Amino acid sequence: MKNRYSIWRLMSLGAALMTAPWLQAQDVLVTLEAEKGIITLPAKVKPVDGSTVEGISGGKYVGDNDPGSSIVFNDIEVPEAGTYEFKTYYMSMQNRSIAVKVNNYSEYISTVSNTTPGWDVPPTNEMSTYIYMDKGKNTIKITPMGSGGPNMDKFEIITTDVELPKPGEFPIVLEAETAQLFGNLKVKPTDGSSVAGLSGGKYIGDFDLAANSYLRFNNVEIPEAGTYELKVYSMGSSRALTIKVNHYQKSIIRTKDSPNWDNAPTSMVSTLIYLDKGTNTLTFGLHEDNGPNIDKFEICTTTEEIDKPEVEKIAYSYDFTDEAEISSTQENSTLSLLTDNDEYTYYVPETSNVEIVAKCQQPVLLTGFLLSAGIDSEIDVDTWKLYASANGSTWKEISYDKVTDLDGAHLYEITRYPGTAAADAAQYYKLAATHENLEIAEWQLFGLPYVASGDKNFPTDLTENIDVHSNVSAYPIGESGDNFSEEFYNLFDRNMNTKYYAHEATSFYVEIDLEKPYTIESYALTNAHDYPDRDPRKWILNAYNEELGWVELDRQTDTYFPTRYSTLKYNVNSSTGFTKVMLDVEANNGAKDIQLLKFQIFGKEFNGAGINAAQDKTLSIIADQGKIIISQTEGKPVNYTVYNLSGTVIEQGTTDVSYREIVLNAGAYIVSANDGSKNKIEKLIVK
């Protein structure tokens, strides 16, 4: 026993230890009993009554590893500088993570991949990460990640064949199994075995889009800001990954096919990323499909350069404070920055406590809210209070069911039900915030409008007096059966109890004939109460004008609803009158089915002014019943190609002089046409 740590040595520390030729991979050099470390509260040695637990090393463990806790071991000796496996024996009924910091190097993350039957009784499970240690004495600090860590029995430092560069040297190797894992991601093989040919013998798998799976590396230390090459080593089919560095906008990389999913060899692709000087956070997510299995990442130096990316905002583009009247007990010129959907601007009250009231345009059934004190703020926004009121004088504190740390903001979710919606809806919301040197970067309110009128609760819009059975068409129609209907008509009934649902469909379109022209000011989509993976994620809003034909008014490519029962509203502000509107949803959030609660359009009857000059009509492409028609008024032949939305060529050819009817099945198509003097591309819906 030395320094209170149980150290197993293969031989005495002498001259032979200087080179340690006898060390083999998987030799346990040091065993650290968790209860023997220097423990910072709220963590504590358990059982607290002084008894012991049979089956636990030493009969003790460290529990209550809540935020602020730490376990420190000093003077941990290893014979050579280099990479070692750091194995943790734990008990945890949840997938929790710890950070392992060696000396002054960046933290390494170790994540529970297999939970245990209980928190306080054996058996324990094992999880590992790789750490770089200096020759001789080292200090190791273990801290919980997020809301807390597992209960910990002991740690082992083990020799390994994995070779990490010394911190600060390149390439920087990020073993996928040492990342912080979210969604369904897990370290594989799950039985604890190793895979020959893979770095560290492990990889991560179950990269599921529907579960919003992603992995994150925190505190990646970089000596200088600039461009670096990122290499991704993966297995399985070619898949797209999103790469988010710190708070910059995401980029996308597509992996290459490898011979199989679970064994070497891996494939490698690389891209350029921008990293800041000092610590960086790298987050890898999914783009439109499930992901590959991943072995490791490498960060390398490069002589190439890319521009520093734009910052990507956390705040959502719309919430109910956007249209609300905002007042405060401390009003000043910065108050408007509180609700500008930008967490990089700040409302700075003049005192350490403040109350802000949002009077919404109409009552809102609140299903969530976002709070930010700023990207790098240490203020605990969880201590702030939110209240609701129907009249602005009698207030009730709001409780939430779930909070998500967005790394710069907290998103709070509230479960709501139609049966209690009328009682829960409120027009006034009040935020009470307290902190010395108080700053508030963003406050957002999410939910759906609740204007009770019989069985309707959404506000009126342009579809109010439309006969949806004759003026609206859609594909797929939706599901129906005995005593239920989830067809597209439900999108327009203004009732939160009904929704549109299409089985085994990931896209849909709905077209509305407004009968007379309207200017379109805005539109809104409201998602359903369940299955986030069925939400629309990518869509286009098109509108039809007699002179202009179909015009794209808005496009959303990567949208996520903040909560269940959440309305997102988008301003269009067209000056042109349109007689038809079409919502074309191209992709959902990963499920095999798709659904939407409501689709609303807001605007005014067109007064005849503001039509732009009509576009050149010498070459036209239009959709008709069961066909597409291509025509050229000057008698020129037209070369054309028809694609489906996946990019597959359906038909191509040349018109007979200047006209061609192309018979097609119902669906969405992209048509490219060229008459020798101009090229035209249209996306059309064939009914």
UniProtKB/TrEMBL annotation:
Segments forming domain CBM6: 30-158, 172-300
Superkingdom of source: Bacteria
UniProt-listed Pfam families: CBM_6
Signal sequence range: 1-25
Keywords: Signal
InterPro entries xref list: CBM6, Galactose-bd-like_sf, Secre_tail
GO molecular function, one term: carbohydrate binding
Protein's name according to its UniProt entry: Por secretion system C-terminal sorting domain-containing protein
Species the sequence originates in: Barnesiella intestinihominis YIT 11860
